[in-house]
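[09:14] KT: can someone run the structure on this one? pasting the chain below
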Amino acid sequence: MDIAREYLRISRSLSYSVKMRILLASRSFSHGASHQHTDAALRQGAKNALRGHFPSASAQQLEVMSFYLICRAAIRDAGRVQSGLSPYDSDIDAWESKRQTMNEMAEELSLKVQMAQERNAKFQSTLSNMMKKVSDTSSGIVSNLK
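[09:31] RB: done, structure tokens below
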């Protein structure tokens, strides 16, 4: 099995939200990973970190996600050694940036909806006033004819 190919295959099959939950689990995993000296202990540590974020996941799902988590940790650690940064800084910054952008978009949309509702209320008020004037005028004409 080619590890890189398997990692890419799994990465493509996981949704964005699952990847973000795995990213959150990777924090607790990274703290305990330095104390794991065997492959089995490393895999078990990854599964334990994932269980808290995926309590209803099957054993097979945990196995796949733990493989993905360990690969991500290895990639991050390799990048950290080269750049001197924390391996999670770029992912967390990207996630935070996306969240902030989404919050701004939601706020902008909320303001647009509020403005549209205000325009609609003003239009309905104007229409109601016009209909009242037409009714008053019609009543006045009828009363003048009598």
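[09:33] KT: thanks! The longest helix spans residues 89-145.
[09:34] RB: yep, looked fine to me
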